[in-house]
């Protein structure tokens, strides 16, 4: 929860006409072409990149990727001479390979869908020369700690060279404040069909941050904020290069949309133990781990990457909770982690700390060995101080002397949130006629996650009284004009259960 004010608010809105009742700024749904970057990110633009522009030749390996979603991808290779007979590889974002990648798993050497295509040199002024190549395999894709994917084409580097496409190289780079960068991408959301080609953004990057997003939530230990413009659905997977250079330092991951709080489409940085959105920012993931997976002879070795095969963890309930929670009888108890561990490992060890500083790779701080079948993480108490915590979990199978590598530990976040939202639910009218109003209560994205309502005669309905509130059992409530005036009340709660202020509207 980002808003920290705890002063109770009440909003009274008198409604006299349909125009006054309508909610005009309803957020659009997340774009189906790219489930990870929202439509509202396309509030600014980046100029189309012509093939004849100075420096454009550097970006011939960048193109449109039609995979699990509409993305951007780059032909890449390891260091040293490129073998023209070797299958060509492209780099993109992990979420471009699957819509359902979890926070602790990976795809390793799996066949790609037969419809997936990569089209390099996707300039608007070279359309007759565009050549598409089939994607044959997903060699690696993950959203665990990073958001990166490497795919193998059904074509060789020689085939790409025949149409004038040479691979870009990878350059691990630690950015600092105001590092000049360039982003080349193919956004589509909010862009006319005839202009959905390579665009170019000149921008600056900052220092890497720890970032989380959505309700899993995904957790990226090194994400670089930047001010690149024109980031929208389709930009995912785009290469980031240092200004006037030609080597890839990162891959575009996500952006902060125009909403509230932390959640879907609202990635947040970890700052002093809490989540904080950097308004207007986008983020890229450094390519260091992918660069290390290339051997000295240019082979991409997936065995050098986290296989995502550690202990699978299933959470009961939301990731955010209050310090004390009620049981079925209404008795209050300390919050617990509520994590069920898979049993492919016989034993597990764990450690807990603030997510902002927790380092799973350091062996210090892990618990003694515990039997997985005892499910020791379900009723494990959470820390009591408000903030966002992480848990690292490693496993071992009976008979093995070695534990899972701690740098490949499974990780889950848990938020202790005692701060009520300052926003109220929304009260909206679906339709208005001469006989009635159809009214409903709505959530506020990332802030008010559930809504209770009640309504009745204005003279006798007190919105501050608990009696009568209920979760809506229909999409809307019908208020008869003949029985007006009415008062419609709404109150909500965030994911942790902290109550929102009460709001109401009068209908007369």
TrEMBL record:
Q: Which InterPro entries match?
A: Peptidase_S1_PA, TRYPSIN_HIS
Q: Which residues form the signal peptide?
A: 1-31
PROSITE patterns referenced in this protein's UniProt entry, alphabetically:
TRYPSIN_HIS
At the top level of its lineage, which domain of life is listed? Bacteria
Which keywords does UniProt give here? Signal
Record protein name field: V8-like Glu-specific endopeptidase
GO molecular function ontology, one term from the record: serine-type endopeptidase activity
* GO annotation terms (biological process): proteolysis
Q: Which organism is it from?
A: Luteibacter rhizovicinus
């Amino acid at each position: 929860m980002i808003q920290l004010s705890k002063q109770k608010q009440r909003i009274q809105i008198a409604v006299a006409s349909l125009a006054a009742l309508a909610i005009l700024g309803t957020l659009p749904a997340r774009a189906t072409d790219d489930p990870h970057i929202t439509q509202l990110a396309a509030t600014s633009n980046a100029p189309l990149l012509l093939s004849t522009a100075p420096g454009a030749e550097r970006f011939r390996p960048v193109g449109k990727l039609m995979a699990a979603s509409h993305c951007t991808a780059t032909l890449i290779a390891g260091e040293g001479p490129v073998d023209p007979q070797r299958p060509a590889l492209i780099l993109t974002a992990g979420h471009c390979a699957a819509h359902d990648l979890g926070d602790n798993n990976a795809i390793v050497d799996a066949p790609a869908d037969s419809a997936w295509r990569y089209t390099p040199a996707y300039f608007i002024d070279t359309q007759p020369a565009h050549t598409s190549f089939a994607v044959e395999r997903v060699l690696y894709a993950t959203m665990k700690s990073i958001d990166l994917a490497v795919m193998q084409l059904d074509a060789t580097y020689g085939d790409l060279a025949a149409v004038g496409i040479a691979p870009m190289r990878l350059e691990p780079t630690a950015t600092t404040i105001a590092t000049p960068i360039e982003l080349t991408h193919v956004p589509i959301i909010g862009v006319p069909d005839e202009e959905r080609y390579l665009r170019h953004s000149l921008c600056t990057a900052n220092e890497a941050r720890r970032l989380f997003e959505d309700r899993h939530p995904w957790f990226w230990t090194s994400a670089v904020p930047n001010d690149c413009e024109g980031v929208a659905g389709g930009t995912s997977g785009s290469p980031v290069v240092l200004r006037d250079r030609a080597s890839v330092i990162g891959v575009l991951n996500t952006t902060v949309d125009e909403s509230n709080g932390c959640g879907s489409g609202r990635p947040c940085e970890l700052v002093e133990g809490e989540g904080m959105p950097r308004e207007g920012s986008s983020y890229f993931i450094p390519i260091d781990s992918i660069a290390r997976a290339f051997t000295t002879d240019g082979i991409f070795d997936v065995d050098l990457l986290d296989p995502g095969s550690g202990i699978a963890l299933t959470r009961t309930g939301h990731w955010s909770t209050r310090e004390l929670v009620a049981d079925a009888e209404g008795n209050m108890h300390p919050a617990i982690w509520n994590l069920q561990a898979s049993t492919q490992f016989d034993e597990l060890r764990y450690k807990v700390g603030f997510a902002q500083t927790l380092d799973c790779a350091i062996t210090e701080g892990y618990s003694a060995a515990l039997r997985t079948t005892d499910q020791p993480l379900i009723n494990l108490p959470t820390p009591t101080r408000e903030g966002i915590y992480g848990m690292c979990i490693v496993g071992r199978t009976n008979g093995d002397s070695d534990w899972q590598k701690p740098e490949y530990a499974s990780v889950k976040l848990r938020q202790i949130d005692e701060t009520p939202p300052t926003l109220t639910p929304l009260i909206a009218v679906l339709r208005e006629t001469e006989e009635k109003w159809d009214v409903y209560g709505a959530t506020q994205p990332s802030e008010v996650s559930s809504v209770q309502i009640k309504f009745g005669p204005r003279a006798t309905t007190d919105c501050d009284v608990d009696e009568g509130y209920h979760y809506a059992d229909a999409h809307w409530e019908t208020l008869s004009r003949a029985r007006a005036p009415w008062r419609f009340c709404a109150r909500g709660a965030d994911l942790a259960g902290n109550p929102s202020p009460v709001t109401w509207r009068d209908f007369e």
